[in-house]
Amino acid sequence: MSVAKHHVMIKGVKDGLVFLLNDACDWQDLLKELQHKLEKTHQQILTGPIIHVHVKLGSREATEEQKEEIRSVIKQKGNLLIQSIESEPRKEAVVEPAARMSALKGMIRSGQTLHHEGDLLYLGDVNPGGTITSTGNIYIMGSLRGMAHAGIDGDDKAIIAASHMRPTQLRIAGIISRSPDEWGIEEAFMEFAYVKDGKMEIDKLHQLHRIWPDSNFKL
Fold first, then answer.
1. Max CA pair span of the chain
2. Domain Septum formation inhibitor MinC C-terminal: where (predicted)?
C-alpha cells in the first residue's frame, strides 16, 4: 500500500527539529507516514546524537491517547527526545453580518423626528420641519423636504438618497451640506448625497455605482 506524502514535514531549527503534522488528513494515514519517514526516508537527519523534537499539530486537537501514539512512534528512534506536542488555537472565522435594511412607511411632519439603527428605506415624505436620522444609509422613496442625517454615529461612507431631493439640510456623519441652491442640479429628482474628500456632494441616483461598485443590498 502506497504511503500518502506530505502529511508530515520535518524542518531543522536552531535547537533541533520541528515535526509539522497535517491537521486535516486521516489520523492513521498521518501515523503511517510518520513511521515511514522515521524508518525509511529521513534516516540521515534522524541519526546521531540526541536531537530535540518539537511536534506541531496545527489546529488538530489531539487527545492524550493520540499524543501518546505519536510519542511511541518517535521514541522508536532512541536519539529523538520529544520536547513538546502542541496544537495551535483554532482561529475563529470572522463572519461579517449581512447588510440588513429596514423598510418603514408613513409621513414625517413638521416637528417630528424619526430615528433608525442601520440602513433605512423610508416609503413616504419628510415634510419641512421634519427630521429623519439613521446610523446607516437613508433611502427615501418620496420627497425629502425636511432634514436628514445619515451615519449619525460617525460613518462618513453613508449616503442619503431621495426620489425628490429638496431638503432644508443634509448631514452625513459630522459633515453638513451646502445650501440646496448651491448643488448645481436644476431638477431635484432621484438624487443622493455622499461625502467625497471631506465634503458633501450631490449626484443623480444612477451614478451610485461609481462610489459603491460592489454594493449589494438585502431587504
1. 89
2. 105-202
Find cell 461625502 and name the residue: 195
Q: Could you write out the DSSP letters of every residue in the chain?
A: -PPPSSSEEEEEETTEEEEEE-SSS-HHHHHHHHHHIIIIISTTTT-SS-EEEEEE-TT----HHHHHHHHHHHTTSTTEEEEEEE-PPPPPP--PPPP-EEEEEEEE-TT-EEEESSEEEEEEEE-TT-EEEESS-EEEEEEE-SEEEESTTS-TT--EEEEEE--SEEEETTEE---GGGS--SS-SSEEEEEETTEEEEEEGGGHHHH-TT-----
In this predicted model, what pLDDT tens digit does every residue of 95-153 receive, in sequence order? 555 457 889 999 999 999 999 988 999 999 999 999 999 999 999 999 999 999 999 99
Q: Which residue has the cell 507516514?
A: 33
70: left (phi over 0), alpha (psi -120 to 50) or beta: alpha
Structure pTM?
Answer: 0.50
Q: Which three cell numbers stand for residue 212?
A: 459603491
